[in-house]
What does this fold into?
Amino acid sequence: MAISRRSFIKISGATFGAAAVAGGIGSRLLASGHGDYVPNPDTDGDQVIPSFCEICFWKCGILAHVKNGHVTKIVGNPDHPLSQGRLCPRGTGGTGLLYDPDRLKKPLIRKDVRGKQVFEEVSWEKALDYIAERLTELKKKHGPESLAIFNHGYGASWFKQLFKAYGTDNFGAPSYAQCRGAREKAFELTFGSPVGSPEKLDIENTRVLTLIGSHLGENMHNTQVQELANAIGKGAELVVVDPRFSTVAGKARYWLPIKPGTDTALLLAWMHVIIGERLYDIDYVEKYAIGLDKLTEHVKDKTPEWAAVETGIAPEVIVETARFIAGAHPSSLIHPGRRSNWHGNDTQRGRAIAVLNALLGTWGRKGGFFLPTSYAVPKVAAAKGISHTFREPPDVPEGQVVPFLGEALAHGLRDASLPGAKVAYPIKAWFVYGTNLVQALPEPQKTIEALKALDFVVAVDVLPAEITGWADVVLPEATYLERYDDLHAPPWKEGYVAIRQPVVPPLFDSKPGAWIASELGKRLGLSDYLHNDVEAYLDERLKKLGTNLAEMKEKGVLRQGKEPVFIEEGVEPTFATPSGKIELFSQQIADSGLNPLPEYTRLDGGPAGHFRLLVGRTPAHTFGRTTNNRFLSRVYDENAVWLNADRATELGFKSGDRVMVVNQDGATAGPITVRATQGIRSDCVYMVHGYGHTANGLQFASGRGADDTQLVTKVAIDPLMGGTGINVNFVRLERFEA
It folds into this structure.
């Protein structure tokens, strides 16, 4: 049955409407800490200022309404190719971050033992002088590469330039090893190109969309949710593979409640059916791919009956869904997912997804993967170019081989900070920008051990977080609504360039990241390597495009116009693989000594009486980054633990009971509320990530729900790219006694 866009947008419990209500009710509950101002989302502004969002990584175009120097509401920019005039709930809640009364207001220097969260407010001059002094000492004593930078967010670009000039190339983003790395490497090895961010998916024109552990409607990638609504409105069908009855599973033709960790078995069985019945795109594969003969032999014994034993999905359902998916090719898209590091065999699972897409002929085709274009924005050189010879990051233990490592591993840099680490050289100091490492990295016991051992820690953030409590210096950054960042021009369906600009001046004594990096650079003698006047820098870049900063501040986005993005439009795809073709069989992987064809690995089932721990997110929040946001928390203010209803009855639990969650190593989290439901398998439980905060300064979020990171005390390392599979932890529930 077809469904309208408006109906689909209601799938997440009327989230969009609830967010709008939150903007009104939440604003009246919010003490802004800035005079007596209370935001009113029903009020249009005297000014409407374009920019782009930073509540998540999607970077949607926004229009900020400003009246009497205050932001009244934030709406989508209809001229921006990503937002297309609409925002997700998080984007509309940006005022909740701007006017959060718990914001970091002044620079802080630690006054007690690290981790005690005892600080003194100081001036910017004192804080920056102190940081420069300590970094100068560090460089003399241990070398510049003894500093590691952990970052999340677009504003990190200023600090990357600064610390490359300082002499270190040790930049770690937790998102690589835990989120996108396995997926990106799998698609590079298959198609010669990563999926990218935002992903180059033509969901709007797909006929069948298969989601494997990907939760559109809960993981609110704005453009993709809009396109999915359009696709469903045109009659598109969904196949959802998930141990949990997610929001989008409720709209699916098929929901396959798969046993966790067996996705690759299902994918191989689908290939067995599709190849055996010659349902694949024969002409496409013959023209663009190599290795079909080897793949055919590889999946010969991967029958639906074999996969049924592994996955818990009946063989006739596997056959039926394989035929259904193949029947819509090439407009039958297997979504590559976003958080792709689950069990340690994740690049192989990503390869299976990529290879199945290749069999369906989706790469470069309408309803599959479009061939992106981008707006070429010329660079502007600083007075001096960086010419250092950087040492390789010590993110992999000595003697360990990771053949397809794409970026520095954040957990590896963390481990290189541990006393006695067996690495090429130790990390002695951290500079942490916009990422709460205590919750963002698995094995939190190692993160705390490293923090205790470090010589020096600096944290730059907007709000207090667990990581700021461990810092020696805390610097309050201006929010994305109060600062410039660099121009944004990603590969997309059409080339565009967007500007982030301040819509109001910084509140309190916060400062933009560009200013912080520049001022620190002056004290380190590195100014010539930096762009110290951000407006002049942006203006110079834009003039190379035939426009200027003043014009861009008015427009917000400059669009290049649509370009051909599909094979159907006459564009011939190219593949940056060694063979120049889609590699179903990867000689690169074979040369590394690993399986060149997608490989299924059976997982450990865990200790008796335990459930496999699964984690995810809610559409109202971006992990732990927004759980202190009063506006968004009117929709979802505390996580719960999903437990199969039959198992709940067996164990004597019911919805609303408060429990502690205890993992296989005795680590605990909670208390947390039970949600007993038939919408989850009986062998696993599920929690939304980002709750259970303990940071002193988070007056709203502190103590709400449970922190799942505390339960991730072990990981499985991906042998191809080094990512951390975290769904290898098992838990049991104990009744909470207050």
